[in-house]
Amino acid sequence: MKHHHTRHNAAERHAMAASLARPSSRQPVVLDPTVDPYARVAVEAYAEACAQDQPWLAEALQRQYRLAGGTPSSAAAMWRAFHEAQQLARQGDSYDEAAWTHVALHLCGVLGAMNL
Questions:
Q1: Where in this protein does the record put region Disordered (predicted)?
Q2: Which of 23, 39, 43, 102 has its CA 20 to 30 A from that of 72?
Q3: How many angstroms separate the CA atoms of 67 and 42, rounded?
Q4: Nearest to 77 by CA among 40, 22, 24, 25
Q5: d(C-alpha 71, C-alpha 89), whole Å
Q6: Cα separation of 36 and 40, whole Å?
C-alpha cells in the first residue's frame, strides 16, 4: 500500500488548526524550531531574553536547536526588522494590513526555503 505522506501531514495540520480554533480546546501547542521558522524565532528570542539571568538555559537552548550563541540568527534578525517596520507603518495613514500580510507570507516562505 502506498503511503501518501503529504496528505497525511496536511490532514494533521488541518486537525490541529481545527482543534486550536475551538475556544474550549485545552490541548497544548508544541513549537518545533527544527521545522517552523516562527518557532525558531521564538526560541531564539527566549534564549536571548533569559541569557542574562539564566545563562545555563540559554546555552541549553542554543545547543539543542543549534542556535548561534550570543547572536541571533539572520532569520530572527529579519523577523524583528520586519515587525519593527510594520509597527512604524501602522502609525501612518496609508498602512495596508493585506500588503504587510502578503510580504510576511513571502518572507516566511523564503526563510523556510533557506532553512534558517
A1: 1-28
A2: 102
A3: 12
A4: 40
A5: 27
A6: 6
